[in-house]
Description:
- By secondary structure, the protein is mainly β.
- Helices cover 7% and strands 42% of the residues.
- The two termini are 14 Å apart.
Amino acid sequence: MRDGDWLLGYNAADNLPGAALTFGRRASGIYCLTEPDVSFSDPQVGDAALPGEDGIRLGRDYQRQTTVTFELGVDGVDGPVDRHWPMRPWAGGARIGSWSDSELVMAYAHKRGGPWDWGSEGVDLLRQVWRADAIRMKPTRVSWLLHTTAGRTRRMYGRPRKLAVSHSRLTRQGYTPVVAEFVAVDDRFYDETEKSEELWDFYLGGRPSRPWRPVLNDGQAYFTTSGKTASVKQLGRLPTYPVIVIHGPCKNPKVTLTPNLWAVQLAMTIGADDHVTIDPRPFARTVIHTRGSATASVADKLTRASPRMGAMAIPPGYWTAALSYTRSSAKYLDGPRVEIKWRDAFGWW
Protein backbone atom coordinates (compact mmCIF):
# COMPACT_ATOMS: atom_id res chain seq x y z
CA MET A 1 0.00 0.00 0.00
CA ARG A 2 1.06 3.57 -0.73
CA ASP A 3 0.51 6.76 1.24
CA GLY A 4 -3.14 7.74 0.92
CA ASP A 5 -4.38 4.19 0.29
CA TRP A 6 -7.29 2.67 2.23
CA LEU A 7 -8.19 -1.00 2.22
CA LEU A 8 -11.37 -2.66 3.44
CA GLY A 9 -11.00 -6.40 3.91
CA TYR A 10 -12.71 -9.42 5.42
CA ASN A 11 -12.57 -13.18 5.01
CA ALA A 12 -14.82 -15.33 2.86
CA ALA A 13 -17.35 -17.47 4.74
CA ASP A 14 -20.43 -19.62 4.09
CA ASN A 15 -19.72 -19.71 0.33
CA LEU A 16 -19.82 -15.91 0.26
CA PRO A 17 -16.84 -13.90 -1.01
CA GLY A 18 -14.46 -11.95 1.16
CA ALA A 19 -13.11 -8.54 0.24
CA ALA A 20 -9.80 -6.75 -0.20
CA LEU A 21 -10.78 -3.49 -1.86
CA THR A 22 -8.14 -0.78 -2.11
CA PHE A 23 -9.45 2.76 -2.59
CA GLY A 24 -8.62 6.34 -1.73
CA ARG A 25 -6.31 7.43 -4.52
CA ARG A 26 -7.41 8.34 -8.04
CA ALA A 27 -5.66 5.35 -9.60
CA SER A 28 -8.09 2.96 -7.87
CA GLY A 29 -11.15 4.49 -9.55
CA ILE A 30 -12.72 5.01 -6.10
CA TYR A 31 -11.02 8.01 -4.53
CA CYS A 32 -11.53 10.33 -1.55
CA LEU A 33 -13.01 13.72 -2.42
CA THR A 34 -12.06 15.08 1.01
CA GLU A 35 -10.06 13.76 3.93
CA PRO A 36 -12.20 11.15 5.73
CA ASP A 37 -13.79 12.27 8.99
CA VAL A 38 -12.92 10.21 12.08
CA SER A 39 -15.33 10.77 14.97
CA PHE A 40 -14.93 9.21 18.41
CA SER A 41 -18.10 8.56 20.36
CA ASP A 42 -18.62 10.43 23.61
CA PRO A 43 -17.42 8.44 26.62
CA GLN A 44 -20.11 6.52 28.47
CA VAL A 45 -19.75 7.95 31.95
CA GLY A 46 -20.83 6.48 35.26
CA ASP A 47 -21.23 9.72 37.18
CA ALA A 48 -23.80 9.85 39.96
CA ALA A 49 -25.28 12.78 41.87
CA LEU A 50 -24.32 13.15 45.53
CA PRO A 51 -27.61 12.90 47.43
CA GLY A 52 -28.55 15.92 49.46
CA GLU A 53 -25.58 18.05 48.40
CA ASP A 54 -23.89 19.71 45.46
CA GLY A 55 -21.57 17.86 43.13
CA ILE A 56 -21.26 14.40 41.63
CA ARG A 57 -19.36 11.23 42.30
CA LEU A 58 -17.19 10.26 39.36
CA GLY A 59 -17.71 6.68 38.21
CA ARG A 60 -16.25 4.45 35.52
CA ASP A 61 -15.93 5.94 32.04
CA TYR A 62 -15.97 3.74 28.94
CA GLN A 63 -14.76 4.48 25.42
CA ARG A 64 -17.03 3.10 22.70
CA GLN A 65 -16.95 2.91 18.91
CA THR A 66 -15.26 5.10 16.31
CA THR A 67 -16.91 6.11 13.03
CA VAL A 68 -14.97 6.83 9.83
CA THR A 69 -16.96 8.70 7.15
CA PHE A 70 -15.78 8.77 3.53
CA GLU A 71 -16.85 11.10 0.74
CA LEU A 72 -15.89 9.11 -2.34
CA GLY A 73 -15.96 9.59 -6.08
CA VAL A 74 -16.54 6.46 -8.16
CA ASP A 75 -14.88 7.34 -11.46
CA GLY A 76 -15.29 5.21 -14.56
CA VAL A 77 -14.57 7.98 -17.04
CA ASP A 78 -11.25 6.56 -18.25
CA GLY A 79 -11.77 2.83 -17.72
CA PRO A 80 -13.47 0.09 -15.69
CA VAL A 81 -13.50 0.35 -11.91
CA ASP A 82 -14.37 -3.33 -11.44
CA ARG A 83 -11.32 -5.09 -12.88
CA HIS A 84 -12.38 -8.69 -12.37
CA TRP A 85 -12.23 -10.03 -15.94
CA PRO A 86 -13.45 -12.11 -17.71
CA MET A 87 -15.40 -13.53 -14.75
CA ARG A 88 -15.82 -13.04 -11.04
CA PRO A 89 -13.91 -15.96 -9.40
CA TRP A 90 -15.42 -15.54 -5.93
CA ALA A 91 -16.86 -19.02 -5.50
CA GLY A 92 -13.35 -20.37 -4.95
CA GLY A 93 -12.75 -18.15 -1.93
CA ALA A 94 -11.25 -15.19 -3.81
CA ARG A 95 -11.84 -11.68 -2.48
CA ILE A 96 -13.75 -8.86 -4.13
CA GLY A 97 -11.31 -6.21 -5.26
CA SER A 98 -8.29 -8.52 -5.13
CA TRP A 99 -7.74 -8.85 -8.85
CA SER A 100 -4.63 -10.40 -10.32
CA ASP A 101 -2.25 -8.60 -12.65
CA SER A 102 -3.55 -10.64 -15.56
CA GLU A 103 -7.15 -9.66 -14.74
CA LEU A 104 -6.08 -6.02 -14.62
CA VAL A 105 -4.45 -6.23 -18.05
CA MET A 106 -7.36 -8.13 -19.59
CA ALA A 107 -9.93 -5.73 -18.12
CA TYR A 108 -8.26 -2.80 -19.85
CA ALA A 109 -7.53 -4.72 -23.04
CA HIS A 110 -11.17 -5.76 -23.43
CA LYS A 111 -12.97 -2.60 -22.44
CA ARG A 112 -16.64 -2.97 -23.24
CA GLY A 113 -19.47 -0.56 -22.70
CA GLY A 114 -18.43 2.96 -21.80
CA PRO A 115 -17.99 5.40 -18.93
CA TRP A 116 -21.65 5.15 -17.82
CA ASP A 117 -21.42 1.37 -17.64
CA TRP A 118 -17.97 1.40 -15.99
CA GLY A 119 -19.08 3.89 -13.35
CA SER A 120 -22.24 1.94 -12.60
CA GLU A 121 -20.24 -1.27 -12.26
CA GLY A 122 -17.92 0.53 -9.85
CA VAL A 123 -20.83 1.61 -7.65
CA ASP A 124 -22.18 -1.94 -7.81
CA LEU A 125 -18.76 -3.27 -6.71
CA LEU A 126 -18.56 -0.79 -3.81
CA ARG A 127 -22.11 -1.62 -2.72
CA GLN A 128 -21.30 -5.35 -2.73
CA VAL A 129 -18.17 -4.85 -0.62
CA TRP A 130 -19.93 -2.50 1.82
CA ARG A 131 -22.86 -4.95 2.20
CA ALA A 132 -20.39 -7.46 3.77
CA ASP A 133 -22.60 -10.53 3.42
CA ALA A 134 -19.82 -12.88 4.55
CA ILE A 135 -19.57 -11.32 8.02
CA ARG A 136 -22.72 -9.38 8.90
CA MET A 137 -24.79 -12.34 10.11
CA LYS A 138 -22.23 -13.63 12.65
CA PRO A 139 -21.56 -11.65 15.85
CA THR A 140 -17.83 -12.39 16.06
CA ARG A 141 -16.94 -11.70 12.43
CA VAL A 142 -15.31 -8.37 11.66
CA SER A 143 -13.67 -6.58 8.80
CA TRP A 144 -10.52 -4.51 8.93
CA LEU A 145 -9.92 -1.02 7.61
CA LEU A 146 -6.29 -0.27 6.74
CA HIS A 147 -4.78 3.12 6.01
CA THR A 148 -1.26 4.09 5.02
CA THR A 149 0.00 7.53 5.95
CA ALA A 150 3.45 8.94 6.71
CA GLY A 151 4.94 5.63 5.56
CA ARG A 152 3.17 3.48 8.17
CA THR A 153 0.09 1.28 7.93
CA ARG A 154 -2.41 0.83 10.77
CA ARG A 155 -5.77 -0.87 11.00
CA MET A 156 -9.11 -0.72 12.77
CA TYR A 157 -11.55 -3.58 13.32
CA GLY A 158 -15.27 -3.17 12.73
CA ARG A 159 -17.84 -3.31 9.95
CA PRO A 160 -18.89 -1.20 6.98
CA ARG A 161 -22.30 0.34 7.65
CA LYS A 162 -24.02 3.20 5.83
CA LEU A 163 -23.68 3.78 2.10
CA ALA A 164 -25.42 6.61 0.24
CA VAL A 165 -25.21 7.03 -3.54
CA SER A 166 -25.92 10.42 -5.13
CA HIS A 167 -26.89 10.50 -8.78
CA SER A 168 -25.97 13.63 -10.65
CA ARG A 169 -25.71 14.93 -14.19
CA LEU A 170 -22.19 13.47 -14.25
CA THR A 171 -23.42 9.90 -13.69
CA ARG A 172 -23.91 9.39 -17.45
CA GLN A 173 -20.30 10.49 -17.94
CA GLY A 174 -19.10 7.76 -15.53
CA TYR A 175 -18.78 9.68 -12.25
CA THR A 176 -20.90 9.09 -9.14
CA PRO A 177 -20.37 10.56 -5.64
CA VAL A 178 -20.85 8.20 -2.68
CA VAL A 179 -20.85 8.68 1.10
CA ALA A 180 -19.78 5.60 3.11
CA GLU A 181 -19.32 4.88 6.82
CA PHE A 182 -17.21 2.37 8.70
CA VAL A 183 -17.86 1.71 12.41
CA ALA A 184 -14.93 0.39 14.47
CA VAL A 185 -15.42 -1.71 17.61
CA ASP A 186 -13.16 0.55 19.70
CA ASP A 187 -11.02 3.68 19.50
CA ARG A 188 -7.69 1.93 18.88
CA PHE A 189 -5.54 2.00 15.76
CA TYR A 190 -3.48 -1.19 15.52
CA ASP A 191 -0.12 -1.55 13.83
CA GLU A 192 -0.31 -3.65 10.68
CA THR A 193 2.76 -5.66 11.69
CA GLU A 194 1.77 -8.44 14.07
CA LYS A 195 4.39 -9.24 16.68
CA SER A 196 4.86 -12.63 18.31
CA GLU A 197 6.90 -14.40 20.94
CA GLU A 198 7.14 -18.10 21.74
CA LEU A 199 7.48 -20.06 24.94
CA TRP A 200 8.38 -23.74 24.79
CA ASP A 201 9.76 -26.61 26.83
CA PHE A 202 11.11 -29.58 24.90
CA TYR A 203 13.18 -32.36 26.41
CA LEU A 204 16.14 -34.17 24.87
CA GLY A 205 14.51 -37.54 25.42
CA GLY A 206 11.20 -36.53 23.87
CA ARG A 207 9.93 -36.06 20.38
CA PRO A 208 9.68 -32.29 19.97
CA SER A 209 7.89 -31.00 16.88
CA ARG A 210 10.69 -28.42 16.59
CA PRO A 211 13.59 -30.23 18.25
CA TRP A 212 16.19 -27.46 18.27
CA ARG A 213 15.66 -23.73 18.56
CA PRO A 214 18.45 -21.29 17.63
CA VAL A 215 19.03 -18.57 20.24
CA LEU A 216 21.34 -15.57 19.90
CA ASN A 217 23.51 -14.61 22.85
CA ASP A 218 26.14 -11.87 22.46
CA GLY A 219 25.99 -12.40 18.73
CA GLN A 220 26.71 -16.14 19.00
CA ALA A 221 24.08 -18.70 17.97
CA TYR A 222 23.54 -21.75 20.10
CA PHE A 223 20.69 -24.26 20.40
CA THR A 224 18.31 -24.90 23.26
CA THR A 225 15.34 -27.13 23.99
CA SER A 226 13.76 -24.83 26.54
CA GLY A 227 12.54 -21.24 26.43
CA LYS A 228 9.99 -20.82 29.19
CA THR A 229 10.33 -17.04 29.37
CA ALA A 230 10.22 -14.34 26.71
CA SER A 231 10.21 -10.54 26.54
CA VAL A 232 6.98 -8.95 25.31
CA LYS A 233 7.63 -5.44 24.00
CA GLN A 234 4.45 -3.42 23.48
CA LEU A 235 5.66 -0.23 21.81
CA GLY A 236 2.30 1.42 21.20
CA ARG A 237 0.54 4.14 23.17
CA LEU A 238 -2.63 2.29 24.26
CA PRO A 239 -3.23 -1.14 25.84
CA THR A 240 -3.66 -3.96 23.33
CA TYR A 241 -5.07 -7.48 23.51
CA PRO A 242 -2.86 -10.51 22.77
CA VAL A 243 -3.90 -13.82 21.24
CA ILE A 244 -2.44 -16.78 23.14
CA VAL A 245 -2.20 -20.17 21.42
CA ILE A 246 -1.18 -23.13 23.61
CA HIS A 247 -0.02 -26.29 21.80
CA GLY A 248 0.09 -29.56 23.75
CA PRO A 249 0.98 -31.89 25.26
CA CYS A 250 0.50 -30.43 28.73
CA LYS A 251 -1.83 -30.23 31.68
CA ASN A 252 -3.03 -27.07 33.45
CA PRO A 253 -0.86 -24.65 31.41
CA LYS A 254 -0.35 -21.18 32.84
CA VAL A 255 1.01 -18.06 31.15
CA THR A 256 2.10 -15.24 33.47
CA LEU A 257 3.00 -11.68 32.47
CA THR A 258 5.18 -9.83 34.92
CA PRO A 259 5.81 -7.55 36.69
CA ASN A 260 2.38 -7.64 38.31
CA LEU A 261 0.26 -7.77 35.17
CA TRP A 262 -1.88 -10.93 35.00
CA ALA A 263 -1.74 -14.73 34.77
CA VAL A 264 -4.12 -16.90 32.75
CA GLN A 265 -4.46 -20.64 33.38
CA LEU A 266 -6.48 -23.49 31.91
CA ALA A 267 -7.65 -26.36 34.13
CA MET A 268 -7.52 -29.02 31.41
CA THR A 269 -5.25 -31.41 29.52
CA ILE A 270 -4.20 -30.52 25.98
CA GLY A 271 -3.18 -33.41 23.74
CA ALA A 272 0.01 -33.62 21.72
CA ASP A 273 -1.71 -32.65 18.46
CA ASP A 274 -4.22 -30.22 19.95
CA HIS A 275 -4.13 -26.54 20.73
CA VAL A 276 -6.21 -23.98 22.62
CA THR A 277 -6.60 -20.39 21.42
CA ILE A 278 -7.36 -17.71 24.00
CA ASP A 279 -8.59 -14.62 22.13
CA PRO A 280 -9.61 -11.71 24.41
CA ARG A 281 -9.94 -9.13 21.62
CA PRO A 282 -13.21 -7.14 21.91
CA PHE A 283 -14.82 -8.71 18.86
CA ALA A 284 -13.88 -12.28 19.85
CA ARG A 285 -13.63 -13.02 23.61
CA THR A 286 -13.35 -16.77 22.98
CA VAL A 287 -11.40 -19.78 24.25
CA ILE A 288 -11.39 -22.46 21.54
CA HIS A 289 -10.02 -26.00 21.77
CA THR A 290 -8.99 -27.41 18.38
CA ARG A 291 -8.63 -31.16 17.89
CA GLY A 292 -7.96 -31.93 14.26
CA SER A 293 -10.86 -30.40 12.33
CA ALA A 294 -13.14 -30.24 15.40
CA THR A 295 -13.44 -27.16 17.58
CA ALA A 296 -15.19 -26.54 20.88
CA SER A 297 -15.43 -23.73 23.40
CA VAL A 298 -13.55 -24.35 26.64
CA ALA A 299 -14.09 -20.96 28.25
CA ASP A 300 -15.29 -22.79 31.36
CA LYS A 301 -11.78 -24.23 31.77
CA LEU A 302 -10.30 -20.87 32.69
CA THR A 303 -9.46 -20.92 36.38
CA ARG A 304 -11.12 -18.55 38.83
CA ALA A 305 -7.78 -16.85 39.40
CA SER A 306 -7.55 -15.91 35.71
CA PRO A 307 -8.59 -12.35 34.82
CA ARG A 308 -11.74 -11.49 32.91
CA MET A 309 -11.02 -11.52 29.19
CA GLY A 310 -11.71 -7.80 29.05
CA ALA A 311 -8.87 -7.29 31.55
CA MET A 312 -6.32 -9.35 29.59
CA ALA A 313 -4.74 -6.31 27.96
CA ILE A 314 -1.05 -5.54 27.65
CA PRO A 315 -0.23 -1.88 28.43
CA PRO A 316 2.63 -0.13 26.63
CA GLY A 317 5.99 -1.19 28.00
CA TYR A 318 8.34 -4.14 28.39
CA TRP A 319 6.90 -7.26 30.02
CA THR A 320 8.11 -10.77 30.70
CA ALA A 321 5.98 -13.79 29.79
CA ALA A 322 6.58 -17.06 31.65
CA LEU A 323 5.23 -20.57 31.06
CA SER A 324 4.41 -23.16 33.71
CA TYR A 325 2.50 -26.43 33.40
CA THR A 326 2.22 -30.03 34.59
CA ARG A 327 3.46 -32.92 32.50
CA SER A 328 0.37 -34.53 31.00
CA SER A 329 1.75 -38.07 30.84
CA ALA A 330 4.95 -40.05 31.20
CA LYS A 331 4.36 -41.03 27.58
CA TYR A 332 5.31 -37.56 26.38
CA LEU A 333 8.67 -36.25 27.47
CA ASP A 334 8.35 -33.05 25.47
CA GLY A 335 6.27 -30.16 26.73
CA PRO A 336 4.04 -27.45 25.26
CA ARG A 337 4.66 -24.59 22.88
CA VAL A 338 2.92 -21.25 23.42
CA GLU A 339 2.53 -18.44 20.89
CA ILE A 340 1.76 -14.93 22.10
CA LYS A 341 0.68 -12.64 19.25
CA TRP A 342 -0.27 -8.97 19.43
CA ARG A 343 -0.36 -5.70 17.53
CA ASP A 344 0.87 -2.46 19.08
CA ALA A 345 -2.08 -0.09 19.64
CA PHE A 346 -2.11 3.65 19.06
CA GLY A 347 -4.52 6.57 19.40
CA TRP A 348 -4.34 7.70 15.75
CA TRP A 349 -3.29 6.65 12.26
